[in-house]
Design brief:
heterodimer, A: alpha+beta, five-stranded mixed beta sheet, 5 helices, elongated, B: alpha/beta, 21-stranded mixed beta sheet, three-stranded mixed beta sheet, 26 helices, 33% helix, 18% strand, LRR_dom_sf (chain B), F-box_dom (chain B), F-box domain-containing protein (chain B)
Chain lengths: 177, 673
């Protein structure tokens, strides 16, 4: 049995490997980890990753694993990046909500990015003044909500993306910060 | 060796009757097959052979049906009873003699009723005349292992080939067990076809390496090319796809399933010329990059025959709505991401779009589906036969259940295990027509909370009696559950169970799962494919060898106690074609017990077992028509070179029958003994 442990096997130990002792088989699974393939290093960093992994187990196609990894990384990436669109702007931006402490900082950050609330060239040209913008966001259910109603911590958990509405759509939705 | 059924002397020969005879091998240079020969005769002497052949096929005559079991139709219209009897008793019964009674076109016409490549393989070995007729008339060629035969030989034998299917890497390559450059290059096949079979219309490749160069050649060399299907392939990019789009006039099908495709940013979809109106099926769901959505919309609009369209994740709901408006006759749809950039009117438009699409039977995609959009498809749920939600982790159980309740015609369902036992119970209630179920793990490393257990499976088995195909990833299974499932669903042809902890016993009895799987193989007489998991001793293999007589593919992982296990399987399963084993205690004794068996199989894979270099060498020496390949990972190859000991355990071994000898494209780390 010891020779198998010494062999250069690309395997990690398995959970519940003590169940093997009762089998009395001459093959046992190594208890300690060895190298894994690159797919094993990309685990989402949860605490339960203490359960080590075996190469090629569970038998899921690499394509499927990679698709899920991509989705997982997007949702669990440190930093809470959300897309910000502004009506009329040709492209979107992304901001990290964790960087801001509250709604005031968020507004200032967006202002700096899009130049929409101050009396900048853009707003003068369009004939808009600062109060004709509303910051809205899309929540987990897909609904369009006005920013500012809920406590900040609750907001950053449920905010999926931001949308700065301007002009006639924004009228009547002015935030009252 | 002839066994003939004796005709009853008293019977009147006014109705067509059937006799059976067996022929020995006629050719020396082919593998040895016994064919069962059916003799059908018609008592009228002035019969028109062509119409008789038509009637025999069209009426579903029992003789034609028997052909699917590998028998051969042999028509003798004008012999008398005595002549037939004497022929049947004759030791050297050759049907060639009878072939003079009717021309090749008739035989060819009879062969037209044989769609299975196995039947065609069988008829071609009966006699030389039939071999020649069959080889010239075979249109669809299937090569299960690209290294079993050279492309030149295939194309010389079947010059009329229109459709070619080739498979490359062994199945365990799907799970990262085969190194990247192992082989399976498609280029030799495409090059040879370009030279020898320029009339090629369809190419289907699975687990092969397809370069952009290959795709470019494919696009330019075959003027009638109609259909390209690539499954689990790699090595190409959007550049290669652009070549296909640009140069394949009259392309009907481009089906890319779960391939690794590099995105070179090339707007390949825009390369379909305005003159392209022939597309029937387009699947680019596996591509990661963006496509030009307006080019896609125009393409969909001008391809009026488009019936299958599977979009990738980059396509939003807004684009989907526009596409559906232009393709209301779609039968199969992959929805793309199913989220909207701007929410405003998306829902209502989506609802309207789906309302008009009443031909949709097959639905997939939903990569990022938000719950509110799912309701838009309820109107088509009741006509769905296939639903694939296995790439939709965002869908919650309750929304899933709400949707499933409408899907009462569903035959095939693929879901994630987040559906839970509760969701599976809902499926069991609603989907009485269900034939295939696949439950994939949502947490791909299997470290999450218990999602589905044996309860879900038992519920499905009692609610869905037509179930014949299963892939089930779960956290635990009991013998009692498997025995119940075996009783409820005796029609399984594919049964693949994956318990995420690979050596887990029955949690209630703490026993191995031998009895449970034993019940499955005993009850399901038509079982063709089986994957085992959980704690298993040699006993399960005893059962498999005893009962699984139709089994063709068996996957074993972390199972068994001794060589006896593998020997039971090799000696018992007479139809076994593919055996793949990992991390199980089978060694040289098992490997060498029944070496002749491997020539009746397509391949054997063994990794992390107890097979040694010496065992592999012995096998290779005894069986020259097998390739015994050993894959050496980096750490081992140095050791093996310094210490070439026959006692050294082999980490990965792949054995397959072949007509070509060792392959000439084997990389350094693959040794062929």
């Amino acid at each position: 049995m010891a020779s198998y442990v010494e062999d250069t096997e690309l395997r990690l130990g398995l959970p519940g490997s003590d169940a093997l002792a009762t089998r009395g088989s001459k093959r046992s699974l190594p208890e300690d980890d060895a190298a894994g393939d690159d797919s094993s290093c990309r685990n989402g960093g949860s605490g339960s990753a203490a359960k080590a992994q075996v190469v090629g187990w569970p038998p899921i196609r690499t394509y499927r694993k990679n698709s899920f990894q991509a989705m997982k990384v997007e949702s669990e990436a440190s930093g809470l990046f959300v897309k910000v669109s502004m009506d009329g702007a040709p492209y979107l931006r992304k901001i990290d909500l964790k960087v801001y402490k509250g709604y005031k900082e968020l507004r200032e950050g967006l202002d700096g990015m899009f130049n929409c609330f101050s009396q900048g060239e853009f707003s003068r040209k369009e004939g808009c003044n600062g109060s004709e913008f509303a910051i809205t966001y899309e929540d987990k259910d897909g609904d369009l909500m006005l920013v500012g109603d809920v406590p900040w911590e609750m907001f950053i958990c449920s905010c999926k993306r931001l949308r700065i509405m301007k002009g006639s759509e924004a009228r009547g939705l002015e935030s009252r910060h | 060796m002839i066994e003939a059924a004796e005709p009853e002397n008293s019977r009147e020969w006014s109705d067509p009757e059937v006799h059976e005879g067996r022929l020995g091998p006629i050719f020396e240079d082919f593998a040895f097959f016994f064919s069962r020969v059916l003799v059908l005769f018609c008592p009228q002497s002035a019969v028109d052979l062509r119409s008789f052949a038509c009637e025999a096929g069209a009426a579903g005559n029992s003789c034609i049906k028997d052909l699917s079991l590998g028998c051969v139709l042999f028509v003798v219209p004008v012999l008398t009873k005595l002549e037939v009897e004497s022929k049947v008793r004759e030791k050297n019964f050759r049907c060639c003699g009878a072939m003079t009674y009717f021309p090749d076109e008739v035989v060819e016409h009879i062969f037209d009723f044989l769609s299975s490549h196995r039947d065609r393989n069988n008829v071609s070995t009966v006699c030389k005349a039939w071999y020649l007729v069959e080889q010239l008339s075979r249109l669809r060629v299937f090569v299960g292992n690209c290294y079993a035969v050279r492309p030149e030989r295939v194309m010389a034998r079947f010059p009329g080939m229109k459709c070619l299917t080739v498979k490359g890497k062994p199945h365990f390559a799907d799970f990262n067990l085969v190194p990247h450059d192992w082989g399976g290059d498609a280029l030799p096949w495409i090059e040879t076809a370009a030279r020898c079979c320029p009339g090629l219309e369809e190419l289907r490749l699975k687990r092969m390496v397809v370069s952009d160069e290959s795709l470019e050649l494919l696009a330019r060399a075959f003027p009638n090319f109609k259909s390209l299907v690539l499954i689990s392939c790699e090595g190409f990019s959007t550049d290669g796809l652009a070549e296909i789009a640009t140069h394949c006039r009259g392309l009907r099908e481009l089906d890319l399933q779960e391939n690794e495709v590099e995105d070179h940013g090339r707007q390949w979809l825009s390369c379909f010329p305005d003159s392209c109106t022939s597309l029937v099926s387009l699947n680019f769901a596996c591509l990661k990059g963006e496509v030009n959505t307006s080019a896609l919309e125009r393409l969909v609009a001008r391809c009026q025959n488009l019936r299958c369209l599977k979009l990738n994740r980059a396509i939003s709901i807004e684009s989907l709505i526009k596409i559906l408006a232009r393709a209301p006759n779609l039968v199969e749809l992959g929805t793309g991401s199913f989220t909207a950039d701007h929410r405003t009117e998306a829902y209502q438009n989506l609802l309207n779009a789906f309302y008009k699409c009443n031909s949709i039977r097959n639905l997939s995609g939903f990569w990022d589906a938000a719950p509110r959009y799912l309701q838009a498809i309820y109107s088509i749920c009741s006509s769905l036969t296939v639903l694939n939600l296995s790439y939709a982790p965002a869908i919650q159980v309750n929304d899933l259940i709400k949707m499933i309740r409408h899907c009462f015609k569903l035959q095939k369902l693929w879901v994630l295990d987040s559906i839970g036992d509760k969701g599976l119970a809902a499926v069991a209630c609603a989907c009485k027509e269900l034939q295939e179920l696949r439950v994939f793990p949502s947490d791909v490393y299997g470290t999450g909370i218990a999602a589905v257990t044996e309860e879900g499976l038992v519920a499905i088995s009692s609610g869905c009696p037509k179930l014949n195909s299963l892939l089930y990833f779960c956290h635990q299974m009991t013998n009692a559950a498997l025995i119940t499932v075996a009783k409820n669903c005796p029609h399984f042809t594919r049964f693949r169970l994956c318990i995420l902890d690979p050596v887990k016993p029955d949690p209630i009895s703490n026993e191995p799962l031998d009895e449970g799987f034993g019940a499955i193989v005993k009850s399901c007489k038509d079982l063709k494919r089986l994957s085992l998991s959980g704690l298993l001793t040699d006993k399960v293999f005893l059962y498999i060898g005893m009962y699984a007589s139709r089994l063709e593919m068996l996957s074993i992982a972390f199972a068994g106690e001794s060589d006896k296990g593998m020997v039971y399987v090799l000696n018992g399963c007479k139809n076994l074609k593919k055996l793949e084993i990992r991390d199980s205690p089978f060694g040289d004794a098992a490997l060498l017990e029944n070496v002749g068996k491997y020539e009746t199989m397509r391949s054997l894979w063994m990794s992390s077992c107890d097979v040694t270099q010496g065992g592999c060498k012995a096998l290779a020496a005894k069986m020259p028509r097998l390739n015994v390949e050993v894959i050496n990972e980096r750490e081992e190859s140095d050791e093996m070179v310094e210490n070439p000991s026959d006692m050294h355990r082999v980490e990965k071994m792949y054995v397959y029958r072949t007509l070509t000898g060792p392959r000439d494209d084997a990389p350094d780390f693959v040794w062929t003994f």
